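Issue 218. Parser rejects a valid record. Input:
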Amino acid sequence: MKNEAIDAGAAIKGYAFAVIERLAACGQTVILQMDQSHMNDANEVLILSARLRRRAVPVAWRVRSTQANIGFSIQKELLDSVRVGLPKDVPIMLAADRFYGTAQLIGWCQKKPAGPVTFASRETCPLLTRAAN
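Output the parser choked on:
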């Protein structure tokens, strides 16, 4: 990922959207997972993945130099970067930890052009807990 001649985001996005299209073609709710991970002493990464069985296929990510939570402006940037590729008229569920469930994020979910996105906290949604085990 350090080679600037390779756009890792563009390379994975084609595969990830193919996975999302397959899930949609099977009539399944597409589950997108958003999570923040500590990379090193200076950086955090916010990752949006598509759930495929018990795996997560990365769709897009943003890396920021911070020791704190990555705020809604970057979450929105990340979500907007994949919004255009989401299939129309297919149920989408955004799963994230409970501290992501802000009014701003819920508002974003309600304004998806192809239909609303359901937000579910991983800590409180039995469907997500069962699927992860």
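Fixed in the parser; the record now loads. The helical segments are 8-25, 72-83, 103-110, 126-132.
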